[in-house]
Design brief:
Blueprint (H helix, E strand, L loop, with lengths): L1 H21 L2 E15 L3 E17 L6 E16 L4 E20 L5 E12 L7 E13 L2 E9 L32 E14 L2 E12 L11 E14 L2 E12 L5 E10 L7 E9 L29 E13 L2 E12 L6 E16 L2 E12 L6 E11 L1
Antiparallel strand pairs: 1-2, 1-18, 2-3, 3-4, 4-5, 5-6, 6-7, 7-8, 8-9, 9-10, 10-11, 11-12, 12-13, 13-14, 14-15, 15-16, 16-17, 17-18
Length: about 400
């Protein structure tokens, strides 16, 4: 009897594994980026990036409500400038996705979603915390209400692909010669609520994140605790015209409270799958009683050679996108940037960008991107032109 029970369990387990394996989906992407830069004092730079990405998804249920996803990448980078006429070679490898996911559906529009492992996570703004991280995400969804919670750890990430800001607002340094240098160790926790169409088709959102430095394998972050609370509103104004507004209050250690606010208006013309947007962003410096804003994930606020973070600046811009044909997407944008490190604002520079993405075949995409920052003092002037190619299989 005991032997028969064991055989039955083994047969069921084997059938389960075989069924899952037979539905496994996998593939890969080969990518290339070739970028040319013109910088002050007749400096020319070339960056060459080549990467190979492989992905795998194993479903455990017929409806896809439970699955395991894996994605890994190997990247080669070569940087060269005419000033020293020598280049730097870097090879890195990373597991960018390793996630177990399960979705329990109850009634139409109501579900509970759980994700555990390594995956991308972003806050409402897309500026404060926007990166891959190791952790767990739980979300409960209803037609008129969503609530979610996240807890994670950053100390096992690859510093080549994730850049975290320290208490001074600058990116942590790491040994670039290593294939897998570890990122700065922080414990991360966050909760958010989202109320779609709460009133007059308007959506209200609230979010809170805390980042706390903790001991890691090769370094320990102490005395660095960072809080961010965000309130957001979005919805239609008139037909085809929508807005998104967010404001964030941040607090780091003993620094004064800081602020990040952004307003975006977007109009969708009824032709060519196009859009036109106007935006205004403010990231506080040491402005009166406000402290300098500091994000957690490093994000470059402009195309300047100085690569400023979102702190002590105002940026106003116009952007748009259009698809003249199905396979071609064109994007363009201009911004005026003002520096507000202290109590007064001053003109800092002007920038523009132009991008084109062309789907040559269903599995081949080509791209061209131009960007140019023209600063008040020309110290941060920079012109970039990048060619990209991606092939999936």
């Amino acid at each position: 009897m005991k032997s028969k029970t064991i055989k039955t369990i083994a047969t069921v387990a084997f059938s389960f594994v075989f069924a899952a394996a037979s539905a496994v989906d996998f593939g890969g992407i080969v990518g290339n980026v070739t970028k040319f830069s013109v910088q002050p004092e007749t400096t020319y730079a070339v960056t060459q990036k080549n990467d190979v990405t492989g992905w795998l998804q194993v479903p455990f249920t017929a409806d896809g409500s439970m699955y395991l996803a894996l994605e890994g990448v190997v990247r080669y980078t070569y940087d060269w400038t005419n000033k020293d006429n020598s280049g730097m070679h870097t090879v890195s490898t990373d597991i960018s996705l390793l996630k177990y996911a399960y979705t329990a559906r109850f009634t139409p529009g109501t579900a509970l979603q759980l994700s555990v492992g390594r995956f991308g996570i972003s806050d409402f703004t897309g500026i404060i915390f926007n990166q891959v991280s190791d952790g767990a995400f739980l979300q409960f969804r209803m037609p008129r209400f969503e609530a979610s919670a996240y807890a994670g750890y950053t100390g096992l990430l690859n510093a080549h692909t994730v850049s975290i800001l320290d208490a001074a607002g600058t990116a942590y340094s790491y040994d670039a010669t290593k294939v897998y240098p570890l990122a700065a160790p922080y414990a991360v926790a966050g909760v958010s609520i989202h109320a779609p169409y709460l009133f007059a088709n308007q959506t209200v959102s609230g979010e809170f994140f805390v980042f706390c430095g903790v001991p890691g394998i090769d370094r320990t972050i102490t005395h660095d605790v960072h809080f961010d609370a965000t309130l957001g509103f979005s919805g239609p104004i008139v037909k085809n015209l929508f807005y998104t507004a967010t404001t964030t209050v941040g607090k780091s250690n003993r620094e004064n409270v800081s602020n990040l606010s952004r307003l975006t208006l977007t109009y969708y013309p009824p032709a060519l799958s196009s859009s036109v947007s106007a935006s205004l962003l403010y990231a506080s410096g040491k402005n009166g009683r406000l402290g300098a804003f500091r994000a957690f994930t490093s994000n470059k606020a402009t195309y300047s050679l100085l690569e400023p973070e979102y702190s002590g600046l105002i940026k106003a811009g116009l952007s748009g996108s259009v698809k003249p044909v199905t396979a071609l997407l064109i994007l363009a944008g201009i911004d005026v940037v003002f520096a507000v490190p202290e109590s007064t604002a001053s003109y800092d520079g002007f920038q523009y960008m132009l991008q084109a993405q062309y789907q040559l075949f269903s599995d081949v995409q080509l791209g061209l991107a131009l960007s140019h920052f023209i600063g008040k003092t020309h110290e941060g002037d920079k012109f970039d032109m990048a060619f990209t190619a991606r092939m999936s299989f």
